[in-house]
Specification:
Elements: H1 3-13, E1 29-34, H2 42-54, E2 64-69, H3 77-86, E3 91-94, H4 97-106, E4 112-117, E5 136-140, H5 143-157, E6 163-168, H6 178-184, E7 190-195, H7 199-207
Parallel strand pairs: 1-2, 1-3, 3-4, 4-5, 6-7
Helix pairs in contact: 1-2, 3-4
Length: 211
């Protein structure tokens, strides 16, 4: 996904004629909702502001941005999304599955633009990729479609592997399932799912991964 495309979609979506936008503010307000920390997504937000500037939107001049960071505490996302809805922002940009679902559950009128969601249809964010419908749209990295191919490639690169470990975050909803992957790899390496609820636990997950 190109950053310019994402910025263009944000600008176009902000112009949707939804009831919540009946009374225009003096300065449009875009919300940025993420389960991560400001430090962790620093380069992304810098590119985000730069792209907006290239499109003619300068923060503090003709556009305001409300940032909400869950600091890797996924349980905070629903309240953060509700706060943004209460502030009547014009658009909510989300960075992953969890923040996208939290925003969708919080409002059916404010436009939502997601980025980096693997299976927006399976997760119930949109009706289809061609016609999302509702107030949600965005970009998918189609992980669910690419995962089998990635695992197949990994099996070819390391044919002697008997177990492939999958590091997953149980706090993030997903449409992937171990039985499905096992079927796709029938006769090949056995997948083993390891759970990690945050960056601090990743090292532990690797230590205890099957050898």
């Amino acid at each position: 996904m190109k950053r310019r495309d994402f910025i263009a979609l944000l600008g176009a979506t902000a112009a949707w004629p939804l009831p919540a936008r009946a009374q225009q503010k003096a300065m449009p307000v875009i919300a940025f909702l993420s389960p991560a920390s400001q430090f962790g997504l620093g380069p992304f937000t810098a590119a985000f502001r730069r792209g907006l500037s290239e499109a003619g939107y300068v923060e503090g001049e003709n556009l305001a941005i409300e940032y909400r960071w869950a600091e890797n505490n996924y349980e905070r996302l629903p309240s953060l999304a509700a706060d943004l809805v209460g502030r009547k922002v014009d658009l909510i940009g989300t960075t992953d599955v969890a923040s996208s679902l939290a925003a969708k559950n919080a409002t059916s009128t404010i436009p939502i633009v997601f980025w980096g969601v693997s299976d927006p249809i399976g997760l119930g964010l949109v009706a289809s990729l061609a016609r999302p419908s509702g107030n949600v749209t965005g970009f998918s990295n189609i992980v669910s479609q690419l995962t089998p191919k990635r695992l197949e490639l990994l099996s070819e690169l390391v044919p002697q592997a008997k177990v492939i470990a999958l590091l997953v975050n149980p706090n993030v909803p997903t449409t992937h399932s171990e039985p499905l992957i096992a079927d796709l790899l029938a006769g090949g390496p056995r997948p083993s799912a390891n759970q990690s609820r945050g960056a601090a636990l990743c090292a532990t997950a690797f230590v205890f991964a099957p050898e």
